[in-house]
UniProtKB/TrEMBL annotation:
GO annotation (BP), single: cell division
Name this polypeptide is given: Cell division protein Cdc14
Keywords noted in UniProt: Cell cycle, Cell division
Signal peptide feature range: none
PANTHER family in the cross-refs: CELL DIVISION CONTROL PROTEIN 14
Regions of compositional bias (Basic and acidic residues) in chain numbering: 67-76
Residue ranges, annotated region (Disordered): 37-76
Compositional bias ranges of the Polar residues kind: 43-66
Naturally occurring in which organism (per UniProt): Emericellopsis atlantica
InterPro entries: ARM-type_fold (IPR016024), Cell_div_Cdc14 (IPR012535)
Top-level taxon in the UniProt lineage: Eukaryota
A Pfam family it matches: CDC14
Amino acid sequence: MEALLSTAFDNLSSYDGPKVRKGLRQVEGLLAQICLSTDPPRSASSSPTKNGSPTKQTEDNTSSSGKENEAPRKDLAELTRDPAFREFFKLQEGFEWNVASRLISTLDRLLAGGSDGQNDLLILSALDLIQGLLLLHPPSKTLFSREQNMNLLLDLLEPYNCPAIQSATLLTLVTALIDTPRNTRAFEALDGLLTVTSLFKSRSTAREVKLKLVEFLYFYLMPETPTIARAGAGATRDVLQRSPSKLAGAFNGDSQRRGSRFDTDAVGLELSTAEKQELLGRHLSSVEDLVKDLRTSAPFGGVVS
């Protein structure tokens, strides 16, 4: 695994677009090997054959869905028991092999490369991979407590970026903020609320981006929960089960006993909905309506106090 990551990192550090694309695909391939089952799809393995050829039913299923050759995804309980995932998780604990930090550096170089179709596609691919990596290794979220890294996401929300990049950045931002109050405070300190609300109020912002912005504002106004790192250290099982990553089991064992280099303690940093409503209200006049709707509809299944 180290050899594959080393090759991918070499490509990701390049200024050559095709090499960067190759590095992104290598990372994607590694994550696919970890997250997808090696067992063949049930429908393909159980389909009868005649004279060595697929039956008409198999052909019809393949042509209609186009997914017969896709490996099934591992469920989360299976993933945390998987040796390859546990090895990957351990490697992510150190800076040398942490993939998210390398992708952030790549994203920074891509953003400096200007806006064109091919470059935009690379940025989108990097953002998608960062989202997945933050879910697979939640301690890497704390990389976005650093001003430089959080500013990178805010730069990607600027109006000169295409709507697809803005939408993908909002999803990445949610992934980086969820269960990580320290990151949310960094977002606020860097005028992230001003950036988001200005984009929302701008007439030039695409409709699909505005919908993502509304979803983001609902998410932001939710009361905050303790960080996963704190929960793994000594919280009840119920708290761990509420973790959106569902990978709390991966925090037990050796990695917790030796301590992660990315662990942070966010005691006292959590804000309530009322406190965040006050902050957001400095930039947006309709926050009270958002909070009322949040209490009524509970879009994330949580309780708003």
